[in-house]
Write the C-alpha coordinates for this entry.
Amino acid sequence: MAGTDAVVAGGGVVGLTTALALAKEGLSITLVEAREEKAAKDARHENIRAWALAQSSWDFLYKLGLGQELLAVSSPIWDMRVVEAHPLRGVDSRKLHVSHSDAVAAAREGGAGVAKEKGAQPKAYPLGCVVEEQALLDLLSRAVALCRGIRSERGLRVVDFASSARGIEVIAHATAEGQRAEGQRAGQQEGQEAEGARGQSERCFRAQLLLACDGRRSVVRERAGISCRTRDYAQRALVCALRHEREHGGVAVEWFMPSGTFASLPLTGRRSGIVWCDAPSTIDRLASMEGSNFMRHVSLRFGSWLGDVSLCGARMSYPVSLSFARRYVSERVALLGDSAHGIHPLAGQGLNLGLRDVAALAEVLREGLSLGEDLGSEGLLSRYERRRHGDVRRLVMLTDGLQRLFGNDNGMLRALRLGGMGLLDKTPVFKRRMAMAATGT
Protein backbone atom coordinates (compact mmCIF):
# COMPACT_ATOMS: atom_id res chain seq x y z
CA MET A 1 0.00 0.00 0.00
CA ALA A 2 1.53 3.30 -1.17
CA GLY A 3 1.90 6.06 1.44
CA THR A 4 1.48 9.78 0.76
CA ASP A 5 0.41 12.97 2.56
CA ALA A 6 -2.62 13.62 0.35
CA VAL A 7 -4.46 11.92 -2.49
CA VAL A 8 -5.98 14.22 -5.11
CA ALA A 9 -8.87 12.60 -6.98
CA GLY A 10 -9.19 14.14 -10.45
CA GLY A 11 -6.71 15.57 -12.93
CA GLY A 12 -8.59 18.56 -14.36
CA VAL A 13 -7.56 22.19 -13.88
CA VAL A 14 -8.51 22.26 -10.18
CA GLY A 15 -6.99 18.83 -9.47
CA LEU A 16 -3.68 19.69 -11.13
CA THR A 17 -3.55 23.07 -9.40
CA THR A 18 -4.32 21.47 -6.03
CA ALA A 19 -1.51 18.94 -6.46
CA LEU A 20 0.94 21.64 -7.50
CA ALA A 21 -0.04 24.09 -4.73
CA LEU A 22 0.23 21.50 -1.96
CA ALA A 23 3.49 20.08 -3.28
CA LYS A 24 4.86 23.64 -3.09
CA GLU A 25 4.02 23.49 0.64
CA GLY A 26 6.29 20.46 1.00
CA LEU A 27 3.59 17.76 0.97
CA SER A 28 3.88 14.48 -0.92
CA ILE A 29 0.93 14.20 -3.32
CA THR A 30 -0.57 11.29 -5.23
CA LEU A 31 -2.66 12.49 -8.16
CA VAL A 32 -5.22 9.91 -9.31
CA GLU A 33 -6.57 10.57 -12.80
CA ALA A 34 -8.95 8.37 -14.81
CA ARG A 35 -7.38 9.06 -18.20
CA GLU A 36 -4.02 7.86 -19.40
CA GLU A 37 -1.55 10.56 -20.50
CA LYS A 38 -2.07 10.04 -24.24
CA ALA A 39 -5.87 10.12 -23.92
CA ALA A 40 -5.64 13.22 -21.71
CA LYS A 41 -3.49 15.00 -24.31
CA ASP A 42 -5.88 14.01 -27.10
CA ALA A 43 -8.83 15.30 -25.06
CA ARG A 44 -7.02 18.58 -24.35
CA HIS A 45 -6.43 19.21 -28.03
CA GLU A 46 -10.13 18.65 -28.73
CA ASN A 47 -11.08 20.99 -25.88
CA ILE A 48 -12.30 24.40 -27.05
CA ARG A 49 -13.53 25.85 -23.75
CA ALA A 50 -12.01 29.08 -22.44
CA TRP A 51 -11.90 30.44 -18.91
CA ALA A 52 -12.07 34.03 -17.68
CA LEU A 53 -9.48 34.23 -14.90
CA ALA A 54 -9.89 36.98 -12.31
CA GLN A 55 -6.74 38.91 -11.45
CA SER A 56 -6.60 37.13 -8.08
CA SER A 57 -6.62 33.74 -9.87
CA TRP A 58 -3.88 34.90 -12.23
CA ASP A 59 -1.81 36.07 -9.24
CA PHE A 60 -2.25 32.68 -7.55
CA LEU A 61 -1.13 30.77 -10.64
CA TYR A 62 1.78 33.18 -11.03
CA LYS A 63 2.95 32.31 -7.51
CA LEU A 64 2.88 28.63 -8.50
CA GLY A 65 5.45 29.42 -11.20
CA LEU A 66 3.16 29.65 -14.26
CA GLY A 67 3.29 33.41 -14.74
CA GLN A 68 5.36 33.94 -17.88
CA GLU A 69 3.97 30.90 -19.69
CA LEU A 70 0.42 31.86 -18.76
CA LEU A 71 1.00 35.40 -19.96
CA ALA A 72 1.98 34.07 -23.40
CA VAL A 73 -1.26 32.12 -23.92
CA SER A 74 -3.81 34.48 -22.33
CA SER A 75 -5.59 37.62 -23.42
CA PRO A 76 -6.34 40.48 -20.96
CA ILE A 77 -9.85 41.79 -20.35
CA TRP A 78 -9.74 45.60 -20.31
CA ASP A 79 -13.46 46.26 -20.66
CA MET A 80 -16.69 44.44 -19.82
CA ARG A 81 -20.01 45.38 -21.37
CA VAL A 82 -23.42 44.01 -20.39
CA VAL A 83 -26.33 44.63 -22.74
CA GLU A 84 -29.86 43.33 -23.20
CA ALA A 85 -31.04 41.94 -26.52
CA HIS A 86 -34.29 40.55 -27.88
CA PRO A 87 -34.89 38.49 -31.06
CA LEU A 88 -37.51 40.97 -32.23
CA ARG A 89 -36.58 44.26 -30.54
CA GLY A 90 -32.82 43.97 -31.15
CA VAL A 91 -30.09 45.30 -28.84
CA ASP A 92 -31.09 47.99 -26.35
CA SER A 93 -28.90 51.09 -26.33
CA ARG A 94 -28.63 51.09 -22.53
CA LYS A 95 -25.75 49.03 -21.17
CA LEU A 96 -23.51 48.53 -18.17
CA HIS A 97 -19.86 49.25 -18.97
CA VAL A 98 -17.04 48.45 -16.52
CA SER A 99 -13.40 49.04 -17.49
CA HIS A 100 -9.95 48.66 -15.98
CA SER A 101 -10.02 52.38 -15.21
CA ASP A 102 -12.76 51.62 -12.67
CA ALA A 103 -10.38 49.14 -11.00
CA VAL A 104 -7.66 51.79 -10.99
CA ALA A 105 -10.08 54.26 -9.39
CA ALA A 106 -10.96 51.69 -6.74
CA ALA A 107 -7.26 51.12 -6.04
CA ARG A 108 -6.68 54.86 -5.80
CA GLU A 109 -9.32 54.95 -3.06
CA GLY A 110 -7.54 52.15 -1.22
CA GLY A 111 -9.38 49.14 -2.61
CA ALA A 112 -8.15 45.94 -0.99
CA GLY A 113 -6.18 43.48 -3.06
CA VAL A 114 -4.95 45.91 -5.73
CA ALA A 115 -1.25 46.25 -5.06
CA LYS A 116 0.45 49.63 -5.14
CA GLU A 117 3.49 51.20 -3.56
CA LYS A 118 2.92 53.80 -0.89
CA GLY A 119 2.47 57.19 -2.53
CA ALA A 120 2.55 55.74 -6.07
CA GLN A 121 -0.19 55.54 -8.66
CA PRO A 122 -1.86 52.10 -8.84
CA LYS A 123 -1.05 49.93 -11.83
CA ALA A 124 -3.50 49.69 -14.73
CA TYR A 125 -4.50 46.12 -13.95
CA PRO A 126 -6.81 44.35 -16.42
CA LEU A 127 -10.12 43.10 -15.06
CA GLY A 128 -8.85 39.59 -15.68
CA CYS A 129 -7.64 37.48 -18.56
CA VAL A 130 -9.00 34.72 -20.78
CA VAL A 131 -7.10 31.47 -21.30
CA GLU A 132 -8.17 28.45 -23.29
CA GLU A 133 -8.60 25.36 -21.14
CA GLN A 134 -6.40 23.32 -23.46
CA ALA A 135 -3.48 25.72 -22.94
CA LEU A 136 -4.01 25.92 -19.17
CA LEU A 137 -4.11 22.13 -18.83
CA ASP A 138 -0.91 21.84 -20.86
CA LEU A 139 0.87 24.35 -18.61
CA LEU A 140 -0.31 22.67 -15.41
CA SER A 141 0.49 19.17 -16.67
CA ARG A 142 4.06 20.15 -17.51
CA ALA A 143 4.50 21.79 -14.11
CA VAL A 144 3.13 18.69 -12.33
CA ALA A 145 5.40 16.38 -14.34
CA LEU A 146 8.44 18.40 -13.26
CA CYS A 147 7.43 18.51 -9.58
CA ARG A 148 9.23 15.85 -7.54
CA GLY A 149 6.63 15.93 -4.78
CA ILE A 150 3.82 14.67 -7.04
CA ARG A 151 3.30 11.08 -8.16
CA SER A 152 0.77 10.75 -10.97
CA GLU A 153 -1.32 7.57 -11.10
CA ARG A 154 -3.19 7.53 -14.39
CA GLY A 155 -5.85 5.15 -15.65
CA LEU A 156 -7.30 4.94 -12.11
CA ARG A 157 -10.49 6.28 -10.53
CA VAL A 158 -11.09 6.64 -6.78
CA VAL A 159 -14.09 4.48 -5.89
CA ASP A 160 -14.01 4.14 -2.09
CA PHE A 161 -12.12 5.03 1.08
CA ALA A 162 -12.06 4.33 4.80
CA SER A 163 -11.11 6.95 7.40
CA SER A 164 -9.70 6.42 10.88
CA ALA A 165 -7.81 8.34 13.53
CA ARG A 166 -4.55 7.23 11.89
CA GLY A 167 -5.36 8.31 8.34
CA ILE A 168 -7.42 7.44 5.29
CA GLU A 169 -7.12 4.43 2.99
CA VAL A 170 -8.14 5.24 -0.57
CA ILE A 171 -9.16 2.53 -3.04
CA ALA A 172 -8.87 3.20 -6.77
CA HIS A 173 -9.93 0.95 -9.63
CA ALA A 174 -8.42 0.85 -13.08
CA THR A 175 -10.61 2.38 -15.74
CA ALA A 176 -11.25 0.52 -18.98
CA GLU A 177 -8.71 2.84 -20.54
CA GLY A 178 -6.19 2.07 -17.82
CA GLN A 179 -6.73 -1.67 -18.25
CA ARG A 180 -6.16 -1.41 -21.99
CA ALA A 181 -2.95 0.52 -21.42
CA GLU A 182 -1.74 -2.02 -18.84
CA GLY A 183 -2.54 -4.88 -21.17
CA GLN A 184 -0.61 -3.22 -23.99
CA ARG A 185 2.38 -2.60 -21.73
CA ALA A 186 2.34 -6.29 -20.78
CA GLY A 187 2.35 -7.25 -24.46
CA GLN A 188 -1.11 -8.83 -24.36
CA GLN A 189 -3.22 -9.56 -27.42
CA GLU A 190 -6.35 -7.46 -27.99
CA GLY A 191 -8.70 -10.09 -26.61
CA GLN A 192 -6.61 -10.71 -23.47
CA GLU A 193 -6.03 -7.14 -22.30
CA ALA A 194 -8.58 -7.06 -19.49
CA GLU A 195 -7.44 -10.43 -18.10
CA GLY A 196 -3.78 -9.43 -18.30
CA ALA A 197 -4.48 -6.26 -16.37
CA ARG A 198 -6.67 -7.89 -13.69
CA GLY A 199 -3.87 -7.91 -11.15
CA GLN A 200 -3.50 -4.16 -11.62
CA SER A 201 -7.22 -3.35 -11.52
CA GLU A 202 -7.21 -2.18 -7.88
CA ARG A 203 -4.77 0.06 -6.04
CA CYS A 204 -4.78 1.25 -2.46
CA PHE A 205 -3.16 4.40 -1.05
CA ARG A 206 -2.70 5.47 2.57
CA ALA A 207 -2.75 9.22 3.26
CA GLN A 208 -3.73 11.84 5.81
CA LEU A 209 -6.18 13.55 3.47
CA LEU A 210 -8.31 12.86 0.39
CA LEU A 211 -9.13 15.83 -1.85
CA ALA A 212 -12.11 15.54 -4.17
CA CYS A 213 -11.51 17.32 -7.48
CA ASP A 214 -13.54 14.80 -9.48
CA GLY A 215 -16.24 17.07 -10.88
CA ARG A 216 -19.95 17.68 -10.44
CA ARG A 217 -20.72 13.95 -10.36
CA SER A 218 -18.11 13.41 -7.68
CA VAL A 219 -17.80 9.80 -6.54
CA VAL A 220 -15.80 10.95 -3.51
CA ARG A 221 -18.57 13.36 -2.45
CA GLU A 222 -21.17 10.63 -2.82
CA ARG A 223 -19.10 8.09 -0.84
CA ALA A 224 -18.56 10.72 1.88
CA GLY A 225 -22.33 11.02 2.26
CA ILE A 226 -22.39 14.72 1.39
CA SER A 227 -25.66 15.77 -0.22
CA CYS A 228 -25.86 18.42 -2.90
CA ARG A 229 -28.51 21.00 -3.71
CA THR A 230 -29.15 21.22 -7.43
CA ARG A 231 -31.19 23.25 -9.88
CA ASP A 232 -31.63 22.39 -13.54
CA TYR A 233 -31.75 25.61 -15.57
CA ALA A 234 -33.24 23.74 -18.56
CA GLN A 235 -30.42 25.13 -20.68
CA ARG A 236 -27.33 23.95 -22.50
CA ALA A 237 -24.21 25.99 -23.24
CA LEU A 238 -22.56 25.92 -26.65
CA VAL A 239 -18.92 27.01 -26.86
CA CYS A 240 -16.83 27.78 -29.91
CA ALA A 241 -14.22 30.26 -31.15
CA LEU A 242 -14.61 32.93 -33.83
CA ARG A 243 -11.95 34.54 -35.96
CA HIS A 244 -12.64 38.18 -36.83
CA GLU A 245 -11.35 40.95 -39.06
CA ARG A 246 -10.60 43.56 -36.37
CA GLU A 247 -8.78 43.48 -33.04
CA HIS A 248 -11.09 42.94 -30.05
CA GLY A 249 -9.12 45.32 -27.82
CA GLY A 250 -9.59 43.12 -24.77
CA VAL A 251 -13.35 43.73 -24.70
CA ALA A 252 -15.70 41.11 -23.20
CA VAL A 253 -19.41 41.45 -23.98
CA GLU A 254 -22.44 39.65 -22.59
CA TRP A 255 -25.84 39.85 -24.24
CA PHE A 256 -28.78 38.91 -22.00
CA MET A 257 -31.74 37.47 -23.89
CA PRO A 258 -35.07 36.08 -22.62
CA SER A 259 -34.04 32.52 -23.51
CA GLY A 260 -30.45 32.71 -22.26
CA THR A 261 -27.12 34.51 -22.59
CA PHE A 262 -24.59 35.04 -25.36
CA ALA A 263 -21.07 35.99 -24.24
CA SER A 264 -17.95 36.96 -26.17
CA LEU A 265 -14.53 36.58 -24.49
CA PRO A 266 -11.28 37.97 -25.97
CA LEU A 267 -8.79 35.26 -27.00
CA THR A 268 -5.25 35.55 -28.27
CA GLY A 269 -4.96 36.82 -31.83
CA ARG A 270 -7.99 38.12 -33.65
CA ARG A 271 -10.22 35.53 -32.02
CA SER A 272 -13.06 35.52 -29.50
CA GLY A 273 -14.54 32.68 -27.48
CA ILE A 274 -18.33 32.32 -27.55
CA VAL A 275 -20.48 30.89 -24.74
CA TRP A 276 -24.11 30.65 -25.87
CA CYS A 277 -26.68 29.45 -23.30
CA ASP A 278 -30.17 28.61 -24.50
CA ALA A 279 -32.86 25.93 -24.43
CA PRO A 280 -31.44 22.40 -25.00
CA SER A 281 -33.41 21.96 -28.24
CA THR A 282 -32.01 25.25 -29.60
CA ILE A 283 -28.41 24.41 -28.66
CA ASP A 284 -28.66 20.88 -30.06
CA ARG A 285 -29.94 22.31 -33.33
CA LEU A 286 -27.15 24.91 -33.44
CA ALA A 287 -24.48 22.32 -32.66
CA SER A 288 -25.57 20.12 -35.56
CA MET A 289 -25.97 22.90 -38.16
CA GLU A 290 -23.78 23.20 -41.20
CA GLY A 291 -21.06 25.82 -40.59
CA SER A 292 -22.35 28.66 -42.76
CA ASN A 293 -25.89 28.29 -41.44
CA PHE A 294 -24.56 28.31 -37.86
CA MET A 295 -22.54 31.46 -38.54
CA ARG A 296 -25.63 33.19 -39.86
CA HIS A 297 -27.28 32.68 -36.45
CA VAL A 298 -24.13 33.75 -34.60
CA SER A 299 -23.77 36.93 -36.68
CA LEU A 300 -27.32 38.01 -35.80
CA ARG A 301 -26.23 38.15 -32.15
CA PHE A 302 -22.54 38.96 -32.41
CA GLY A 303 -23.07 41.83 -34.83
CA SER A 304 -20.45 43.50 -37.02
CA TRP A 305 -18.42 45.41 -34.42
CA LEU A 306 -15.34 43.29 -35.22
CA GLY A 307 -15.90 43.10 -38.96
CA ASP A 308 -16.30 39.82 -40.83
CA VAL A 309 -16.32 36.74 -38.57
CA SER A 310 -15.82 33.05 -39.24
CA LEU A 311 -15.94 29.85 -37.21
CA CYS A 312 -12.55 28.82 -35.87
CA GLY A 313 -12.47 25.12 -34.93
CA ALA A 314 -15.18 22.88 -33.55
CA ARG A 315 -18.29 23.38 -31.44
CA MET A 316 -19.18 21.61 -28.21
CA SER A 317 -22.02 21.84 -25.70
CA TYR A 318 -22.79 20.84 -22.12
CA PRO A 319 -25.78 21.08 -19.72
CA VAL A 320 -26.15 24.14 -17.47
CA SER A 321 -27.17 23.63 -13.86
CA LEU A 322 -26.57 24.79 -10.30
CA SER A 323 -25.04 22.54 -7.65
CA PHE A 324 -24.08 23.44 -4.10
CA ALA A 325 -22.72 20.86 -1.64
CA ARG A 326 -24.24 21.17 1.83
CA ARG A 327 -20.83 20.54 3.35
CA TYR A 328 -17.31 20.84 1.92
CA VAL A 329 -15.61 18.46 4.32
CA SER A 330 -16.08 15.07 5.89
CA GLU A 331 -13.74 12.87 7.92
CA ARG A 332 -10.32 13.40 6.25
CA VAL A 333 -12.05 14.48 3.02
CA ALA A 334 -12.33 17.95 1.46
CA LEU A 335 -14.21 19.02 -1.68
CA LEU A 336 -12.81 21.53 -4.17
CA GLY A 337 -14.02 22.98 -7.46
CA ASP A 338 -17.01 21.45 -9.22
CA SER A 339 -17.31 18.65 -6.65
CA ALA A 340 -18.26 21.38 -4.13
CA HIS A 341 -20.13 23.86 -6.33
CA GLY A 342 -21.20 24.47 -9.91
CA ILE A 343 -22.73 27.74 -11.09
CA HIS A 344 -24.25 29.25 -14.23
CA PRO A 345 -21.55 30.38 -16.69
CA LEU A 346 -23.15 33.82 -17.19
CA ALA A 347 -20.67 35.49 -14.78
CA GLY A 348 -17.65 33.47 -15.92
CA GLN A 349 -16.64 32.79 -12.31
CA GLY A 350 -16.81 28.99 -12.02
CA LEU A 351 -13.09 28.27 -12.28
CA ASN A 352 -12.22 31.30 -10.14
CA LEU A 353 -14.28 29.81 -7.31
CA GLY A 354 -12.38 26.55 -7.67
CA LEU A 355 -8.99 28.24 -7.64
CA ARG A 356 -9.99 30.20 -4.54
CA ASP A 357 -10.81 26.82 -2.95
CA VAL A 358 -7.28 25.65 -3.73
CA ALA A 359 -5.68 28.86 -2.41
CA ALA A 360 -7.71 28.67 0.83
CA LEU A 361 -6.90 24.99 1.38
CA ALA A 362 -3.18 25.58 0.76
CA GLU A 363 -3.22 28.43 3.28
CA VAL A 364 -5.04 26.36 5.92
CA LEU A 365 -2.68 23.40 5.46
CA ARG A 366 0.33 25.73 5.67
CA GLU A 367 -0.96 26.99 9.00
CA GLY A 368 -1.58 23.41 10.13
CA LEU A 369 1.93 22.35 9.21
CA SER A 370 3.43 25.24 11.16
CA LEU A 371 1.42 24.19 14.24
CA GLY A 372 2.15 20.48 13.84
CA GLU A 373 -1.50 19.59 13.31
CA ASP A 374 -2.84 16.42 11.73
CA LEU A 375 -3.61 17.55 8.17
CA GLY A 376 -6.83 15.57 8.10
CA SER A 377 -8.11 16.70 11.48
CA GLU A 378 -11.66 17.93 11.88
CA GLY A 379 -10.56 21.28 13.27
CA LEU A 380 -8.24 22.04 10.37
CA LEU A 381 -10.71 21.00 7.66
CA SER A 382 -13.47 22.98 9.38
CA ARG A 383 -11.34 26.11 9.02
CA TYR A 384 -11.14 25.48 5.28
CA GLU A 385 -14.93 25.06 5.07
CA ARG A 386 -15.60 28.26 7.01
CA ARG A 387 -13.26 30.27 4.78
CA ARG A 388 -14.94 29.08 1.60
CA HIS A 389 -18.61 28.80 2.49
CA GLY A 390 -19.48 32.51 2.53
CA ASP A 391 -17.66 33.34 -0.72
CA VAL A 392 -19.25 30.44 -2.58
CA ARG A 393 -22.72 31.13 -1.20
CA ARG A 394 -22.56 34.79 -2.26
CA LEU A 395 -21.58 33.93 -5.82
CA VAL A 396 -24.13 31.12 -6.06
CA MET A 397 -26.88 33.53 -4.99
CA LEU A 398 -25.60 36.24 -7.35
CA THR A 399 -25.45 34.08 -10.47
CA ASP A 400 -28.74 32.34 -9.69
CA GLY A 401 -30.39 35.71 -9.06
CA LEU A 402 -29.07 37.17 -12.32
CA GLN A 403 -30.30 34.14 -14.24
CA ARG A 404 -33.77 34.52 -12.73
CA LEU A 405 -33.82 38.29 -13.31
CA PHE A 406 -32.70 38.26 -16.94
CA GLY A 407 -34.06 34.87 -17.98
CA ASN A 408 -37.60 36.02 -18.70
CA ASP A 409 -39.51 38.41 -20.96
CA ASN A 410 -41.81 40.00 -18.39
CA GLY A 411 -42.44 43.58 -19.55
CA MET A 412 -42.30 45.14 -16.06
CA LEU A 413 -39.08 43.32 -15.12
CA ARG A 414 -37.54 44.22 -18.45
CA ALA A 415 -38.24 47.92 -17.87
CA LEU A 416 -36.73 47.68 -14.37
CA ARG A 417 -33.66 45.87 -15.71
CA LEU A 418 -32.98 48.42 -18.41
CA GLY A 419 -33.62 51.37 -16.12
CA GLY A 420 -31.39 49.81 -13.48
CA MET A 421 -28.54 49.16 -15.92
CA GLY A 422 -28.70 52.74 -17.17
CA LEU A 423 -28.64 54.07 -13.61
CA LEU A 424 -25.82 51.79 -12.45
CA ASP A 425 -23.73 52.67 -15.50
CA LYS A 426 -23.80 56.28 -14.27
CA THR A 427 -22.87 55.34 -10.69
CA PRO A 428 -19.07 55.38 -10.25
CA VAL A 429 -19.13 53.71 -6.83
CA PHE A 430 -21.06 50.70 -8.16
CA LYS A 431 -18.78 50.37 -11.20
CA ARG A 432 -15.70 50.45 -8.99
CA ARG A 433 -17.15 47.69 -6.85
CA MET A 434 -17.98 45.69 -9.97
CA ALA A 435 -14.40 46.11 -11.14
CA MET A 436 -13.05 44.91 -7.81
CA ALA A 437 -15.39 41.89 -7.92
CA ALA A 438 -14.21 41.08 -11.44
CA THR A 439 -10.57 41.15 -10.36
CA GLY A 440 -11.40 38.89 -7.43
CA THR A 441 -10.50 41.43 -4.75
About this structure: The chain has 14 helices and 22 strands.
